[in-house]
Amino acid sequence: MNTAVEVRHLTVSYGEKPVLEDVSLAIPRGSFAAIVGPNGAGKTTLMKTMLGLVKPLAGEVSIPARGRRGAVGYVPQSESIDRDFPISAYEVALMGRYASLGWFRRPGKADKAAAEECLRRVGMEKFALRQIGELSGGQQQRVFLARALAQDAEIYFLDEPLKGVDAVSERAIISILRGLCAEGRTVVMVHHDLRTVRDYFDWVSIINLGVVASGAVEDVFCERNIDRAYSRRAAGAAV
Amino acid sequence: MPAELEIGLIAVMTAASCAVCGSLLLVRGMTMTADAISHTILLGIVLAYFMAGGLDSPLLFLGAAAVGLVTVALGELLVKSRLVSEDSAVGVVFPLLFALAVILITRYASSVHLDTDTVLLGELAFAPFERMTLFGMDIGAKGIYTSAGLLTLDLLFVCVLFKELKTVSFDRTAALVMGFSPALLHYLTMALVSLTAVGSFDAVGSVLVVAFMAAPAATAYLVAESFGRMLTAAVTAAAASAIIGIRAALALDVSFAGAMATAAGLVFLAALIAAPKRGLVGAYLRRRRAGKRSR
Lengths: 239, 295
Prior knowledge:
The structure holds two protein chains of two kinds. Chain A is an alpha/beta fold. Chain A has eight helices and nine strands.
């Protein structure tokens, strides 16, 4: 298997209680992968550790693409964004080009054209000059997706990009992400809606503190694995 | 150059550099830090004074800027303990360092011209008395050169690091993933804020430093839709407040610092009422229109 991300024996904790315990999994290149699990299962932490934003207590992460600047793209959870910040949709999209520019260099004509093109791809070109806070949740997510597209990364990490998003935006986002995978890029996404896993993704990692199952959707996304992930927490809560 | 013009120049340039720093602080939700730094740098001045043995040494400048950084670093150390929030951490650190400075001054330097009043309430009206001389020639008030130097430094900083500062202030995680070190940018910014505060102290005093780091940036935040426009709007608001304040002070025969700080507050109030999108009037009209439509 040609892997895009691999984590081995990952343990992460904030304070005394572990959030992730001995997590090992691999995601193949070109796949559209979901990370699912109940609330507090450690999905966001797993993603942040993969990105190097959280230091694990033990274990390692390998992302072979990481050598090049900007090869790893990230779309944060929408709540983590300051909606009052004075920045336009276009400027957010242009930010995607900054990764490959590196320090000090300014975006040129080609970068600006790319940012505009990416806004068009997500259907947000009419809102280019709007301040980010004036857009709806779904529109904001599309702008962040445009930023990710502008980055031209090989692997994308998205943290619940469909949360609080209208149906039109959800369809647009999914079709664009599928397009990225068709080009051989990898998309890893924290997802909360179990009903759509089978329709959207080809790879899924079900986690809850540890890995419950990880593999192709048709192989591992079955009732037994889902029950194991979601009832383990319920059992723990009852104690 | 007439004294009024010199005072005006110093005031406008100092106000503008404070506004640039203030904008960088505001977008990170750190305006309180301006207040903290403008007090704790006194400790740096005192310590540097003991080492240098005089008030004219450049050591004073460096010492003050260094303590500014120490303030931020200590605050962050407290935040990392997860026991206090960011705002309270700064609030805990700065009275400690400031009090330490006051004790040192009263205990060991009470005979020197280094009491809190002179350091905290720099007097713009006296700025033209301190002359800069080159080969024995008078080339203008000293304050003009320090404030111009600071303004150049501040503008250069935001121009060169514009996209990096914008990225890290808007989305810290994305900056980290893209390889722009948030910690490095953070400390560079804090160093700049400290330097600007120290330099402006001399010219306008700390009350004005705090006023001009807070008010013009807040004004700009209400009217600007992009980061670049916010910076220009903040500088414009600061310069306008300075000019209005000086005019008012001369006309009413009141203190420059008081009039300028009041002007900065009034300019903010005007923006709060009349800003096109986020102003009170705009919001009221929008609500009324929405109400009519739904009827």
